[in-house]
Amino acid sequence: MFQESVSAQLPTWQARLAQIMETMRELSNQTDPQMMVREYYERMREVNPHIDRRLAMSRRGLEYPQFRITRYSEWGDDINPWKEPDRLPLLSGGILADLIYADAPRIINNLEVASDDPGAEYLSDQRSLQAIPLMDQGKSLNMSLHTRRVPDGFSYEHLPEAVWLANLFGRATNNLVLAGQLKAAYEEIDRELRAVARIQRSLLPTHLPDVSKLKLASHYQTARRAGGDYYDFFPLTKGKWGLMIADVSGHGTPAAVMMAVLHSIAHTYPGPPASTVEMLNYVNHKLCEHYVGETGTFVTAFYGIFDPESLQLQYSSAGHNPPRVRSSSDRVIRALDQAQTLPLGVTTGFNASMATASLQHGDQLVLYTDGIIEASGPSKELFGLERLDAELSCCSTEPGEMIESIIKAVEAHTQSAPPTDDRTLVVGKVV
Questions:
Q1: 247 shares a domain with 287
Q2: Is the pTM above the cut of 0.90?
Q3: 354, 405 contact by CB (below 8 A)
Q4: Could you say which DSSP state residue 112 is in?
Q5: Are 263 and 360 found together in one domain?
Q6: What pLDDT shows up at residue 17?
Q7: CA 201 to chain centre
């Protein structure tokens, strides 16, 4: 009431400006296009009370002479044209079709409509009309019509501004519709990615195996919903166990799909592999023969076979980061950097090599992916092998606590920034 009394006391232009500003404030708060259009129509009734009827039309997805009525001020039911398109009247031909397909604004100040015209229902008793095309893709895909019961109800003097303002509002509404569609599409994609992530994680060991003389712990963190890191354990003959860690090139869902392929190949090896060479050669052959092709995808992988009787680790590496071994006696860190070859999936001529490492009671074996050592801080400096080895040389000897110390060190280095690559750690302590 106070606002109305103040507006009434203002000069005409100031009162009108205050009214328009209030309208803009209300519209800027809207996130639903239907609500925004409804609010706009209500405000326009206040700004232009002489308009008797308002009509909106659309020709989207249609061809001449078809069109739909999307809004009509005489409707008692508020139809949402974006969510209820089937409820919109579909008309063909007549004066309204000629107007919307003309791609131009028009004023008719002596309106006469035949009783059999498809638009007669909407234009009955109206004597003047203003048609404003709402341009999209260079065409009047939508149109706004104002009508009055009196002839000569519209002025050409105000037509340019009316076209300008209506199209600006139309673009704002369209942007809000697109934003809603984008949000819905993103939510659908996010649901799918969550499902991919659940499937991917189901391929990883649910529980770490009970390996004789080797106490295990692991950490798995993806940079996105799903990732391309992979680790696994394979029970072999004579109490031996296969330990694999791998990293698919790339990130996100494509890497996760290839990770699932890698899991399938590794688990379909025909019988327990006699050596690490046989396993990596088999995986590479299948990748190159059926899956990688010309995609440029490759996989780095480390595969070792742990013998609890001899405490020896037979291993092969296909371009993967050399695991670290911390000695139980002097805490010296050594790298298992022998038997290195090209990554898997690069060439059919791949042939793995093999090396053997002797472990002692109390030694810790640390497998990791490059998301650990390539984690960068604010200055873009990588965490690196030196920091990893420094942390290993002073942290606890318990696998779980070792992992916790390494992850804390990485997060301190990156200042807890979200990871840009998957981070995987597998630690085994010889007991």
A1: yes
A2: no
A3: no
A4: -
A5: yes
A6: 81
A7: 19
Instruction: Give the model's pLDDT for residue 11.
Output: 62
Residues in Cβ contact with 35 at an 8 Å cutoff, skipping those fewer than 6 apart = none
d(CA 49, CA 141): 27
Instruction: Assign residue 308 the CATH number of its domain.
Output: 3.60.40.10
- DSSP state, residue 75: -
Same domain, 170 and 210: no
103 and 129 housed in the same domain = yes
Number of Cβ atoms within 10 Å of the Cβ of 282: 17
> What single-letter amino acid sits at 236?
L
State the total domains in the chain: 2
Residue 175 is which amino acid? Answer: N
* Integer CA distances (angstroms), 335 to 52, 177, 275, 331, 416, in order: 84, 57, 21, 13, 27
Please check whether residue 13 lies inside any domain of the structure.
no
Assigned domain for 99 exists: yes
Termini Cα distance of the chain: 83
H or E element at residue 253: helix 252-267
Residues 279 and 402 in one domain: yes
Contacting residues for 151 by C-beta, under 8 A, at least 6 apart: 109, 110, 111, 127, 128
Cα–Cα distance measured from residue 292 to residue 28, given in angstroms and rounded to the nearest whole number: 50
Structural domain range at position 119: 31-182
- Of 278, 286, 288, 266, the C-alpha closest to 346 is 288
Q: How far apart are CA 145 and CA 30, in angstroms?
A: 23
Instruction: Verify that 36 and 136 share a domain, yes or no.
Output: yes
pLDDT value of residue 1? 40
Contact by Cβ (8 Å): 396, 402 = yes
Residue 403: both structure tokens together: 């992992």
Does 231 lie in the same domain as 140?
A: no
Q: Say yes or no: 292 and 250 in one domain.
A: yes
Indicate whether 10 belongs to any domain: no
356 three-class SS: strand
Q: What is the pLDDT of residue 131?
A: 97
Q: What parts of the chain have a pLDDT lower than 50?
A: 1-7
